[in-house]
Specification:
It is a single chain. This protein is α/β, with parallel strands linked by helices. The protein has one domain: 3-Layer(aba) Sandwich (Rossmann fold), CATH 3.40.50.150. 42% of the residues lie in helices and 22% in strands. It has a seven-stranded mixed beta sheet with strand order 3-2-1-4-5-7-6, sandwiched between helices. Strand 1, helix 4 and strand 2 form a beta-alpha-beta unit. Helix 3 runs parallel beside helix 4. The longest helix is centred in the N-terminal third of the chain and has 20 residues. It is globular. The N and C termini lie far apart (80 Å).
């Protein structure tokens, strides 16, 4: 008589899913290089990053900050637009730092790109404020996201633009899932003090939601 250990199998599957998701939150160890390759080569990831960068309306002299740059796809796209600007990235994964450094070697050499090991939980002191800030599929990993968004707002110049994007990857993710996530991010940006918040949706499968907000000008100081 064969006994089916369905409970044990389900437990193993849940454990495997947790380990895989943890890798995408912090690629490291044996699987780190493979995760970076997936993030850099999957067509939907590349399209998603290019789309988010386009929503920032990057100008040639912009100073840009990306939180969680992964293999450096969006960093590369930003540096190609901010040809006389400065693009800084923070990521807590040493593997992603290595991959992004290789991908952006020439821009780093000329000083237009500056990649650092670090995280949104402990932002460094920057010499000048940023015109644009972005992050893709990282907000769900942050502790106290409202506080983190407020800290990011303080690193920006008045009128600066922030883009927070999320593409749900869980089983059964739909347009409604992305829409709900976009609304939640927009609410978080508003609570953190950003203004004119709007949500944009990219029709991938599953869709991508990106909330855009502006750092308000102080009263009477709008140009």
């Amino acid at each position: 008589m064969r006994v089916k250990h369905t409970g044990s199998i389900a437990t193993l599957k849940r454990s495997a899913v947790r380990r895989i998701r943890a890798q995408f939150g912090h690629p490291s160890g044996f699987w780190g290089p493979a995760v970076g390759w997936i993030l850099a080569s999957r067509p939907s990831n590349r399209r998603r990053n290019a789309w988010v960068v386009s929503l920032l309306e990057v100008q040639p002299r912009d100073r840009i900050l990306e939180i969680g740059f992964g293999p450096g796809i969006a960093i590369q796209a930003c540096s190609r637009l901010a040809v006389d600007g400065y693009v800084c990235g923070l990521d807590h994964s040493e593997e992603m730092f290595r991959q992004a450094t290789r991908r952006n070697r020439e821009a780093i050499r000329t000083g237009r790109v500056d990649l650092r090991l670090g995280s949104v939980e402990s932002l460094p002191v920057f010499a000048e404020p940023f015109d644009k800030v972005l992050t893709v599929n990282t907000l769900m990993f942050w502790d106290h996201p409202i506080e983190r968004l407020q800290e990011l707002r303080r690193t920006m110049r008045p009128g600066g633009r922030i883009a927070i994007a999320h593409q749900p990857r869980g089983p059964g993710a739909t347009y409604a899932t992305a829409e709900a996530r976009g609304d939640a991010i927009a609410a978080a940006l508003t609570r953190a003090g950003f203004s004119e918040v709007q949500v944009h949706t990219m029709p991938l499968t599953p869709p991508v939601a990106c909330a855009i907000g502006l750092k308000p000008f102080e009263r009477g100081l709008r140009p």
